[in-house]
Here is the input.
Amino acid sequence: MHELAMATQIVENVLEEAKRHDAKKVAEVHLTIGKMSFLGVDQIKFSYGILVKDTILEDSKLIVEEKDGKIECNNCGYKGTIEIKDDPAYHIPVPTLQCPKCGQTAKIVEGKECTITSIRILKQEDKNGCKQC
Ligand SMILES: [Zn+2]
Here is the structure.
């Protein structure tokens, strides 16, 4: 399952990052998912919800922002966004697409990513105030 593998990677990365910042709890995780990644946002969220159980990520909010895909054509030089209809037939990880201008094979240059854009962490000190002063 594609989404589960991706969610596992996200959780691992966030945990590592949180540890580096000495976080006691993670409140929010912001994610950017390119539409060309063909990842199901709902499935990602579902997998995430299972994976974060009993970790400092439990009860954290996963906020997903979807990004349009961009293609580039080597034949005519077309570069632009591409509309993906919500058709199950499109939900296959195709490495190439047809150029809307000339019909030649165009390559995907953007929108395949799945990246963590920001994490909001909570530290113990934030709750209790500064002990030094
Ligand atoms: Zn073209």
About this structure: Residues 84 and 90 are 7 Å apart (CA to CA).
